[in-house]
Amino acid sequence: GTKMSDTNKAAIAAEKEALNLKLPPIVRPPEDIGVDAPAQSKLLSYRRSKEQQKTINQLVIEGAKRNLDRTLDKRTPSSPEPDYPPTFNYMYLKQCVESSPIVPIQQEWLDHMLMLIPESLKEGKEREELIQSLINEVSSDFEKSMKRYLVRSVLVRPPVKWLEDEGGPLPESPVGLDYSKLWHSNYLQTRNQILANLYIVHPTMKMLLDLGYTTFANTVLLDLTGIRGKGPIDCESLKNDLSIQARKAEEKIMNTWYPKVISLFTKKESLEGIKPEKLDAFYNCISTLMSNQLKELLKRTVEGFVKLFDQEDQRGLPIFKMELTFDDDKMEFYPTFQDLEDVVLGLVERITEALQNVQTVPSWLSGTSTIVNLDAELPEHVLQWALDTLKVAVHHNLEGARKHYETYVEKYNWLLDGTAVKLIETFQAEDHTFDEYTEKT
Questions:
Q1: Can you tell me the distance from the alpha carbon of 234 to that of 237, in angstroms, rounded to the nearest whole number?
Q2: Whole-number Å distance between alpha carbons of 433 and 438
Q3: Which of these, 426, 429, 427, lies nearest to 438 by C-alpha position?
Q4: 138, 105 contact by CB (below 8 A)
Q5: How many angstroms separate the CA atoms of 76 and 69, rounded?
Q6: What gap in Å lies between CA 310 and CA 307, rounded to an integer?
Q7: What whole-number distance in Å separates Cα of residue 195 and Cα of residue 189?
Q8: Domain residue spans in the chain?
Q9: Is 137 helix (H, G, I), strand (E, B) or coil?
């Protein structure tokens, strides 16, 4: 048994020996396996599909070249390009550039322009048409200038005199003011002078201005909106109604606006920064501002009254009662045309009499017996314009009544002035037949 086991052990050992000889030795990886060598990079980035695509592209290009050569050989030689003068090319290109679409002027710009025009200048059919034509003109000028700028920007004009741009030179951008160090001292000096002498920038003056805007912006001395709606009225009745309205509006202004103005100047800070020697000039500025506000109110009221008699827009035209009377063998209208004109013109004078007794601030604050009032008198040219316009309007609107009166006088006055009686007496004194008497009657 022992001999057999020894034999087996020897066989196993021989097998192990044989196996050790057949297995390759263990090789350690090289230390620079991670280094990106050129050969390794090329191998890693190689793609067979890319190489095939390059080959295909090369074949396509070579085929296209061969086809192009065949086509060029078959094509007939083209005629030489005509030698146009440079002016012809320029004019043609200019037409092409000018025909390109131009962005029109923005409506927002036009709206801002229209906001600068006073409302009174935009009322009426003719003025609306005029404004529309002006807008069209502005839009057209804008488009033309844009085209001219586009042509000058894109094309180079040949040196030919008769091709001069008929529009003249393009407007240049405005040159800004130079606020460099050279101007700095002058700027500060001027700014200080403005603060010392231009009193309208004083905080109190700004408050006075705001108070005037809030008070007078929606204030009228006379409510003229419902006069025509009342129907036929006596001119004297209208005069009384409007006079009462003007007096009440005046009282309201003096009980609301004026006390607020005075309260502004009873505060200590109202004269802050004003030197004693400059006080009179400061108060003069206040008086001028208040005068302008009152005059503007009166002017708007007069313009509103004149507008009632506008010949083109008769929606607000008052209707006056007029009676055709016969008294003392005389036919006439009551009130007479002259009376009616006097009442209408007298209403303008009544408006101008309002707010003429408003004390200046220093006069009120001093409390002296000598009262100084603000200058609130309407400018002479405004008053004269109102009276002249109303005279023409009254004469125009009474034209129908005048013709009516003349028709009555022409038809019936001979019966009243004794002409008819004389004719009858003369006829009776003469010798006439019965048929002639019948025909006469």
A1: 5
A2: 9
A3: 427
A4: yes
A5: 13
A6: 5
A7: 10
A8: 86-154, 189-422
A9: helix
Q: Which of 425, 348, 328 is nearest to 394 (CA)?
A: 348
> Exposed (0-12), middle (13-18) or buried (19+): which is 375, by Cβ within 10 Å?
middle
Span 300-354, pLDDT tens digits: 999 988 888 887 776 777 777 766 665 665 666 666 778 778 888 888 889 898 9
> Which helix (H) or strand (E) is 325 found in, with range?
strand 323-327
* Separation of alpha carbons 398 and 386, rounded Å: 18
H-helix or E-strand spanning residue 158: none
Place of tokens 């007794």: 357
Reduced to 3 states (helix: H, G, I; strand: E, B; else coil), residue 398 is coil
Nearest C-alpha neighbor of 204 from the set 141, 127, 262: 262
333 in helix, strand or coil?
strand
Q: What is the pLDDT of residue 84?
A: 47
* CB distance 253 to 219 below 8 Å: yes
358 DSSP 8-state letter = P
Determine the Cα–Cα distance for residues 402 and 384; give it in Å rounded to an integer.
26
State how far the Cα of 294 lies from the Cα of 374, in Å rounded to an integer. Answer: 9
Whether the ω angle into residue 101 lies within 30 degrees of 0, i.e. cis, is: no
| Exposed/middle/buried for residue 199 (C-beta within 10 Å: 0-12, 13-18, 19+) | buried
Pull the structure tokens for residue 338.
């002259």
Closest CA to 345 of 311, 312, 384: 384
DSSP-derived secondary structure for 18-30: HHHHHSPPP-PPP
pLDDT (tens digit, 9 = 90+) per residue, 4-59? 566 777 777 777 666 665 556 677 766 666 556 666 677 777 788 888 888 888 88
CA dist 54 and 43 (Å) reads: 18
Residues 6+ apart with CB under 8 A from 393: 306, 309, 310, 311
Phi, psi of 330 (to 5 degrees): -135, 135
Residue 259 is predicted with a pLDDT of 92
- Name the maximum alpha-carbon separation found in the chain: 208
Name the token pair of 1: 């048994």
> Which alpha helices (DSSP H) does 223-278 contain, by range?
235-264
Name every residue whose Cβ is closer than 8 Å to that of residue 225 and which is 6 or more positions away in sequence. 316
